[in-house]
Specification:
Elements lengths: L12 E13 L4 E12 L6 E6 L2 E8 L2 E2 L2 E3 L8 E6 L6 E8 L6 E4 L11 E4 L20 E8 L5 E4 L13 E10 L6 E4 L2 E4 L4 E5 L4 H7 L3 H12 L7 E5 L8 E2 L4 E4 L12 H8 L7 E3 L5 H20 L1 H22 L17 H4 L2 H18 L1 H14 L3 E3 L1 H13 L6 H4 L1 H6 L13 H12 L17 H9 L7 H11 L7 H14 L5 H10 L3 H13 L3 H12 L5 H7 L5
Helix pairs in contact: 2-3, 2-4, 3-4, 4-5, 4-7, 5-7, 7-8, 8-9, 12-13, 13-15, 15-16, 15-17, 16-18, 17-18, 17-19
The structure holds ligand BES and zinc ion.
């Protein structure tokens, strides 16, 4: 399957294994060393190995130990520079000596000041979607699968972690670490983090890494991890990756979580203190099946990764917290879906599940559609065939395509052969086509319900006076999700008096739950609500999670504080953000 976002030609020569040998230079913010690629010749006449690179400084290239000719082609927008290496039909391996540069977008180098501990610099990489090429020359396509090993040399006193086996449980004396990923994974799943880190295990399978002063809090937050792994295995089959650990990163991490194999990378904004945001861990864990075992072959098939994972995430949460809890997640997701379709436009091709990302940065074409429309499609199929048959299909699907990269059409083939036909139905009758290839909300989309939200809605309906304080006794048992339901129900043009009343009743301006903060600060910015301003600014400067930043900046720009104020905050905050966040925000705050 052709990948429009990669210059690699794996049908001619495929890389099957990669060995990294890198030194970490915190002083100059450089990773330098070698990568050795093992080759498989699919076309014996091919004499060029094509790789993806972006902003890398290449020093030397050897083919089977001897210098060989190579060249970097001109930069292609979003893609970087294709690299051509001269080989023969017999070349077994290619070794590249290189270093990263300031333009290596995957890597974020943090100063000590930008960490929680404030004493040591820190680094982490983010590969998805097409950023691995900016720190490793490779065939950076999710359709290519490689095993890898790595030697990382860092300064003594630092811990290095990777998406692989061999993660340390303590700091090494000499700063040297070794890793091994024996299963073939897509290159976007190679990840590295180095810093002052500590580890605490829950049991022989799960554990948590964090900066020492965050470890207690993180450990308390993720107490359900083993239960999640067990629930996931019960649902869709064995966990094949060995350990499952979570690494809590400094606040600059641009995503909620990233499913790096063996070691989920996570934002500290899920440390709410009450375990209320841990469905994110269920999500990243679920990717161990949907995404890491069965992988989207191209970014046009991104929904295969995320839609399946949201479905799986909610099934894990249902298993450990019950149906009423999972229902709340589904209803919030439905709201996101409807809003996203409205925003992008119901006729817009970007609201199809199957995308056409030709010529665009895949990161710009990815939105909630893959997640939520994908989720509701799988739920729609489940509703028609029944949970028993659907779960059996999913178990078979993860086995059938294990450690393969597949397209939407491969999924449809399996759906037809292993579910529709045995159930005496057809893909046409299941109506999947409209979901995948047509824009907007399909006519067969069923609106989900959540009992616990009915209570929230009734509570809101009862409060009819905009001047009478809210009755706070009814809300004492609410979880984050009920608060989100409550806040999302408030009008964008609430006005300062109503916001003041809300704040006096519930103290939203001093919330330390990032999900609640983000919704509240958006309202504050839209309404010019001064008492929330200082905390909002602090939040924007200290949080790098794009999902929270984008709506807040947009609200500031739209509201009375305006673009000038957004620009002022952004100027201070931008050095704390990762490339994927600044890449989005540079186009928002102008
Ligand atoms: N794989 C994604 C993150 C991602 C997507 C990185 C696209 C780069 C490009 C990850 O699994 C994810 O979906 N994270 C979400 C959280 C999840 C609970 C919806 C996030 O970061 O908010
Ligand atoms: Zn995901």
């Amino acid at each position: 399957m052709a990948d429009l976002h990669s210059a690699a030609k794996p049908d001619q020569i495929a890389v099957t294994h990669l060995s990294l040998n890198l030194g970490v230079d915190f002083e100059h913010s450089i990773l330098a060393g070698t990568v050795t690629l093992q080759l498989k010749h699919n076309d014996p006449t091919a004499d060029t190995l094509w790789l993806d690179t972006k902003a890398l400084e290449i020093e030397a290239v050897e083919a089977d130990g001897k210098p060989t000719k190579w060249s970097l082609l001109p930069d292609v927008p979003h893609h970087g520079q294709p690299m051509a290496i001269v080989v023969t039909g017999e070349t077994d391996s290619v070794k590249i000596t290189y270093r990263t540069t300031k333009g290596s977008e995957a890597v974020q180098w943090l100063t000590a000041e930008q960490t929680a501990g404030k004493t040591h610099p820190f680094l982490f990489t983010q590969g998805e979607a097409i950023l691995t090429r900016s720190w490793i020359p490779c065939q950076d396509s999710p359709g290519v699968r490689i095993s890898y090993d790595a030697n990382i040399q860092t300064t003594p006193g630092y811990m290095a972690l990777m998406s692989a086996h061999g993660n340390p449980t303590a700091v090494s004396a000499d700063g040297h670490y070794q890793f091994r990923m024996p299963l073939a994974v897509a290159p976007y799943l190679i990840a590295l983090s180095v810093g002052q880190l500590a580890f605490r295990p829950y049991d022989e399978v799960t554990g948590v890494y964090a900066e020492p002063n965050v470890l207690d809090k993180a450990f308390a937050e993720f107490g359900q991890m083993r239960k999640m792994v067990n629930a996931a295995e019960q649902l869709y089959g064995p966990y094949i990756w060995g350990r499952y650990d979570v690494l809590v990163l400094p606040a600059s991490f641009p995503f909620g979580g990233m499913e790096n194999p063996c070691l989920t990378f996570a934002t500290p904004t899920i440390l709410a203190g009450d375990q209320s945001l841990v469905s994110l861990v269920a999500h990243e864990l679920a990717h161990s099946w949907s995404g890491n075992t069965v992988t989207n072959a191209t970014w046009d098939d991104f929904w295969l990764n995320e839609g399946f994972t949201v479905y799986f995430e909610r099934r894990i949460m249902e298993a450990i917290e019950g149906k009423d809890y999972a229902d709340m997640l589904a209803v919030l997701g439905y709201q996101d879906l409807v809003e996203t379709v409205q925003e992008i436009g119901p006729e817009h091709p970007n609201t199809c599940l199957h995308l056409d990302l030709k010529g665009v940065n895949p990161d710009d074409g990815m939105n909630d559609i893959a997640y939520e429309k994908g989720y509701f499609l799988l739920r729609h199929i489940e509703d028609q065939v029944g949970r028993k048959a659907w779960d059996a299909f999913l178990r078979a699907y993860f086995k059938r395509y294990a450690l393969q990269s597949i397209t939407t059409e491969d999924f449809l083939k399996a759906l037809d052969e292993d579910l529709a036909k045995p159930q005496g139905t057809t893909l046409a009758a299941l109506g999947v086509d409209a979901w995948i290839y047509k824009p907007g909300l399909p006519s067969t989309l069923t609106k989900p319900m959540a009992k616990r939200f009915d209570a929230v809605d009734a509570y809101i309906a009862k409060h009819t006076s905009a001047t009478v304080a809210w009755d706070t006794t009814a809300t004492t048992s609410w979880s984050t999700h009920e608060w989100l339901r409550f806040l999302r129900a408030q009008s964008d043009s609430l006005g300062v008096p109503a916001m003041t009343l809300l704040d006096q009743s519930f103290g939203f301006s001093s919330s330390t739950n990032a999900e609640i903060e983000a919704v509240w600060y958006r309202l504050a910015a839209l309404n010019g609500y001064e008492p929330a301003k200082a905390n909002m600014v602090n939040f924007l400067v200290h949080t790098g999670r794009r999902k929270f930043l984008t709506p807040t900046y947009k609200a500031i720009i739209k509201g009375p504080w305006g673009m000038a104020f957004a620009r002022e905050i952004y100027g201070n905050a931008r050095p704390n953000y990762h490339f994927v966040a600044t890449n989005t925000l540079d186009a928002v705050v102008k």
